[in-house]
Amino acid sequence: MTVTVKISEPKGQLLELLDKIEAGEDIIIARGDVPIARLSQIPQRSAVAELIRTIKSQRDLRSATSRDEIKTWRNEGRP
């Protein structure tokens, strides 16, 4: 659901408007009858994005892999 408010209204209703936004409503701010801005909820981080962030932070803590290590891993199990 979308709620439209006049530009002078949000000044005294910020907490109430934020509660509505958290409940999933979009707020349109209008100057007169002309819409000029939209306030909406920020999408939550997805599980995939959080996993990527975790992997990157763990990767930064590890030392660089050498060519010899890579060659050893590649050749594991080969005759």
From TrEMBL:
This is Type II toxin-antitoxin system prevent-host-death family antitoxin. InterPro entries: YefM-like_sf. Belongs to the phD/YefM antitoxin family. SUPFAM superfamilies: YefM-like. It comes from the Bacteria.
